[in-house]
Amino acid sequence: MPKIDQIIADTRAYSCLDCGKCTVACPISRYDPDYSPRMVVYNALCGHDTELLENGQLWSCLTCSLCEERCQSGVQYTELIKLLRGEAHAIGETGQCTHGGALQSLMHLMTADHLSQNRLGWLDKSLKTATKSDVLYFAGCQPYFDVFFSDLGVKTLDIAKGAVKLLNRLGIVPALLPNERCCGHDLLWAGDMEHFAKLAEHNLKEIRRAKVKRVITTCPECYQTLKVEYPRYFGSLDFEVVHISQLLAERVASGELKFRRSVRKVTYHDPCRLGRFSGIYDEPRAIINAIPGLELIEMSRSRASALCCGTQAWMNCGSINKQIQAERLREASSTGAEVLLTFCPKCQIHLRCAMNDGRLGEELGIEIEDVTSLAAKALSG
Amino acid sequence: MTKPKQYQDTDFKPRIVGFVCNWGAYSGVEMAGVDKREYPASIKLVKVMCLGRLNLGLVLKAFELGADGVMLLGCPEADCYYESGMERAKELFTQARKVLHLLGIEPERLALVEVPLGRGDVLAKQVSTFVKRIAKLGQVRRVRERKQPAQLKKGLIGAKN
C-alpha cells in the first residue's frame, strides 16, 4: 500500500463525511481562509499528494486537536497531520521556523552522543534532590527557555523550582538528569523523525540508567511525548509517566497538601497536550480549588473546547497566530479574573509574547502564572 | 604535500565561521588583503550588513553544522552605521554564550570583536588569536554525523512574518 494510503487507513481519514465541522472549529481557519482541515483530508483522500505535501498548509495546523474533538466520524486529524508532515519532511519540505530557527538548532545540537550540559544551575540549597531515587523529575527545556525568552520576562524555571519544592513537601526527593535532552516533541510534530528518534533514544537510555520507577513532568508536551509517543515508537516503558497535576491533585484529595489563603480571581487555560490529548481537565482545577481564597472563573471556551495558545512546534508563527492569542487573552480578561493560570511553559511563552505588543499591550495585558509555581508559592508554613 | 605551517603539530583543523559587518570589519578584511596581512584560512567569512541583523538562530546554526568557533566581527559601538547594531550584537553575544554554556559548549568559542574602519591589522590579529584559542580548545566534544539535515534542502530557514 502506498504510504499516504496507509496513513489514511491508520488515521481513519476515509471515514470523513466532508461535513466541514473541523474547518468551522479550527482556530486557524477562522482567520486564514486558505487553511482548511477538511481540504487537507480531501486532498489526502483524492490522491492530490503534491497539493497536500508541498503547498505549505500542512505546517499551519496548530495540532490543537479541537477539530478532532468536533469530528463525528472519528478522523484522527492531528495524527494525520503528524504522519503527513513526516512524509513532507522526507521530501525536503518544512515549515517556517520562528525565532530564526534557534530552537530547531538547539534541538539538533542536543542529538549529539556526547553532551555535558550545565542545565541544573537553577537548583539551590533549599531544594532537595538525590542522585538515586525512585522518582525522576523531567524538567524539560525550561533552563533554555529562560535564556531564549528573557526579553519577555519569562521565568519558566520558577515552574521547575516550584515542582521540586512541592515534591519535597510531599516527602519525595527527586532525581534529575544532568544530561536530559529535549523530549523531541517539536521535532516529531515537524515530521523530523530522524532527530526525534535520536533525542528519544538518549532520553530513554538516561532514564533507564537512573533506574527510576516514576517520571514526573511539569510540561504537558514532555508528558504526552514520554507517555504516549515514546512507547509508540520504542516499545513499552519500564517506568510510569505522571504529570505533576495528577500527583498534586491526588495529594490534595488525601489532605496531605495544604495551601495558604490567597484571595484572587483566576481563570484557567487548558493546554492542548494536557487537556484534549490526555484528558487531564479536573486535576488542575482540583489544585486551584484547594487554594483557599482563589476564585476560579471559567472562560467561555474551556476544557475540551479550550482555545489553543496559538503556536505549535516553534513553526509558522505570524499574524494569524497573534490574532488567536489576542482572542484568548481578551477572553481571559473578560472573565474579570486578575490572573490567567496555565499548566504549560509554552502556553505561557506564547501568550506573554502576544502581550508584548506596542499597540495592544495594555488591552491584552493580564498577569499570567503556571499552576505549579502558584501552588509552590501558596504552600503553607 | 606539506601541511600549512600552523597545522604541522596537529591534525585538528578548526572550522570557524566569522560573521562580518559590511562597514567596519569588512573594510578591515579588505585592508588586510591590500596590506597582504596573513591570518589563518580556518575562518570562513559571512558578510552581513550589520551584526544587528544576526540572531541566535544563525549563531546556533553555525555550531549545529559543525563549527568549532564563531566570531562576530563588528564595529566600535559608537561607529555603528545603523546606530544600535552593536548594542544588539552585544545582547545577542551575551544570550548566545549563556545558551552555549547550558549546552556544555565552552562559551569562549563565541567571540565578539570590534574592528575600526579599515584596520586590517586589528582584524588579522584578532582572527589569529581566536583561531589559536579554538585550536587549543579542540573540536567541540560530540560525535555526530555532519550530514546536512533534510530540512535545509529547500534553502534558508527563517521567519516568514
Characterization of the model:
- The complex is a heterodimer of chains A (381) and B (161).
- Chain A is built from 19 helices and seven strands.
- By secondary structure, chain A is α/β, with parallel strands linked by helices.
- Chain A has three domains: 88 residues, Fumarate Reductase Iron-sulfur Protein, Chain B, domain 2; 150 residues, no CATH class; 121 residues, AF0625-like (Rossmann fold, 3-Layer(aba) Sandwich).
- Chain A has a four-stranded parallel beta sheet with strand order 5-4-6-7, with helices on both faces.
- Chain B is globular, with a radius of gyration of 16 Å.
- Chain B has a four-stranded parallel beta sheet with strand order 2-1-3-4, with helices on both faces.
- With 161 residues, chain B is an alpha/beta fold.
- Chain B starts with 15 loop residues before the first strand and ends in a 24-residue tail after the last helix.
- At the A-B interface, helix 8 and helix 9 of A face helix 2 and helix 3 of B.
